[in-house]
Amino acid sequence: MEKILVKADKRTETGKGNARSLRRRNVLPAVMYGEGKSMPIQLDKKEMHKLISSGVGEHALITLQLNEGDSGTSERPVLVKDYQTEPVSDELIHVDFIEISLQKKIRITVPVVITREPAGIKLGGIMQHRVREIEVECLPTQIPDKIEVDAGFIEIGHSLHVSDLTPQEGIKIVTDPSEVILSVTAQKEEAVAAAPAEGAVAEPEVLKAKGKAEEEGQKKDQKEK
To answer: Distance (Å, rounded) from C-alpha 98 to C-alpha 34?
Structure first.
């Protein structure tokens, strides 16, 4: 697994005013949690935004190269616990990290990627992709970027389940094995009402009823005569 290194500095000042000041300078305020403690930190906003928007940062092990001032520099293994974005601009405004031990197994969600289109789609079927992430348990150094699955054998009327996945060695899938990752169903034929012939005008129902009444009246007159 490729090592993701992110440089950060210990933050001495906190508060909303300080956070706004940092963002104006393209610096991202953040907090690192671990062992019942928290540490305010700051890092490059553009770098972190790129990492999270790529989809990698939310699931990957990150090494924070932390500058702690007089205490020197240390490397801290962390995961992204949560992050906040500005509702309108989608700008990243805050990140929470959680420090972890490289020797202890953790549970984390990873994306499921379909590598091959189901055979049923070529026959006119419709794919329903239901599960896009699964939870796994492993050491932080074994976190996969993704779990790939070949769905090429799925025909119309069949499904692919979590139980069909084959994880790498050392990775345990925690998600319910019966969960359906994707299924292929047949297209539903919709009944199409017959349209009037081109140029023809459909006779209004009320006129049809009137014409019928007139016809019956004529027949009655003929009998009376």
So the answer is: 6
| pLDDT above 50 for 192 | no
Q: Tally the domains of the chain.
A: 2
- Residues 111-138 have a mean pLDDT of 93
31 touches 96 (CB < 8 A): yes
DSSP 123-161: TT-EEEE---EEEEEE-GGG--S-EEEE-TTPPTT-EEE
Tokens representing 213 are 């009444």
Retrieve residue 56's tokens. Answer: 């990698």
Q: Provide the residue type at 149 as one letter.
A: V
Q: Which residues contact 141 (CB under 8 A, 6 or more apart)?
A: 1, 61, 102
Q: Which pLDDT belongs to residue 216?
A: 54
**82 three-state secondary structure:** strand
Residue at 115 is within a domain: yes
Can you give the residue range of the structural domain that contains 83? 4-99
